[in-house]
Write a sequence for this structure.
């Protein structure tokens, strides 16, 4: 089986796909992301800031365009550099164009295309406008803001109710009272949070201490890798760092972090089941 597959696996490496990072060629491509200053843009009266995606193309045969296509074809490790992402302050960066006469789409395309054309001799076509914010209709709360406020208010309210119920009607060490309401009591949750692990009526809890320790360490790893993951999906100044990190053995531990998540779930489930026994 392997002898049949091997030629295909080897052939895949030379099929018009660039797998290797080459810094001199890489920095000749237009930047994948670029953002104008948002606050400064909207500080002007009538300032308009748009977040847009553009597709790069070329009418004539272009060495750069060929490189961009072949580099982007390695979809597992590389971003798609044929589509660039820009945050454009229309009123400042595109002031050389006739913004008031043209519609916004035409202005945005002409504006970015002009910069790209002058520096790289390839063209940019507007693909998508993610949003445009205007200085005049800024402010105010939208639906998602209200939803977050309501959810936080509900959480604060149930905590207040649970804590008052606990303080007024229940004794700290007794097991009486409605357990659902008490699960929101600040006093009880704080006591649980700061109580040392492995101390309790069950002597076997002592042996599970190392589990709790491992779980705490794993939790730090999970938070760390999710922060890194979120950064990898934002508007990066240096996307090459993410692309190169996939070839760096020391970062493989982060990239294969979902294995750690599995052990974390198994450990947590075990401790939970043990507590309910
Ligand atoms: C990197 O790319 C440039 C331009 O395409 C080329 O001249 C150079 O030989 C390449 N370097 C490596 C190490 O492949
Ligand atoms: C890159 O994005 C463009 C535009 O969205 C798309 O047409 C193209 O297929 C993508 N290329 C790859 C390799 O995914
Ligand atoms: C902008 O449009 C106005 C009105 O159509 C015209 O008079 C002016 O020459 C245009 N300016 C540029 C730079 O195209
Ligand atoms: C981009 O700009 C160049 C030079 O001004 C022009 O020839 C080309 O038609 C423009 N392309 C688009 C898609 O606007
Ligand atoms: C501007 O572009 C958006 C999509 O990017 C499209 O839905 C809209 O119809 C366009 N407007 C004009 C006036 O071309």
């Amino acid at each position: 089986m392997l002898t049949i597959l091997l030629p295909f696996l080897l052939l895949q490496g030379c099929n018009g796909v660039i797998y290797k990072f080459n810094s001199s060629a890489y920095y000749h491509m237009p930047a994948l992301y670029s953002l104008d200053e948002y606050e400064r843009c909207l500080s002007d009266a009538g300032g308009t800031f748009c977040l847009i995606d553009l597709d790069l193309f070329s009418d004539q045969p272009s060495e750069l365009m060929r490189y961009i296509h072949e580099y982007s074809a390695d979809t597992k490790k590389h971003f798609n550099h044929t589509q660039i992402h820009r945050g454009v302050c229309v009123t400042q960066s595109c002031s050389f164009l006739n913004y008031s006469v043209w519609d916004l789409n035409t202005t945005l395309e002409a504006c970015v295309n002009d910069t790209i054309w002058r520096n790289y001799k390839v063209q940019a076509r507007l693909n998508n406008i993610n949003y445009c914010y205007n200085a005049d209709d800024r402010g105010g709360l939208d639906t998602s803001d209200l939803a977050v406020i309501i959810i936080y208010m509900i959480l604060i309210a149930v905590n207040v109710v649970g804590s008052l119920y606990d303080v007024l009607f229940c004794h700290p060490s007794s097991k009486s009272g409605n357990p659902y309401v008490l699960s929101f009591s600040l006093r009880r949750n704080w006591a649980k949070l700061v109580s040392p692990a492995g101390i309790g009526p069950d002597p076997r809890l002592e042996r599970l201490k190392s589990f709790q320790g491992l779980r705490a360490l794993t939790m730090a790893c999970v938070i760390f890798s999710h922060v890194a993951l979120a950064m990898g999906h934002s508007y990066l100044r240096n996307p090459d760092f993410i692309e190169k990190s996939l070839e760096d053995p020391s970062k493989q531990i982060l990239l294969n972090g979902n294995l750690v998540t599995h052990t974390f779930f198994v450990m947590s489930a075990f401790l939970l089941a043990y507590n309910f026994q």
About this structure: The CA atoms of residues 97 and 256 lie 48 Å apart. Residues 55, 72-73, 75, 80, 82-83 surround 2-acetamido-2-deoxy-beta-D-glucopyranose (ligand 2) (CB under 6 Å). The radius of gyration is 28 Å.
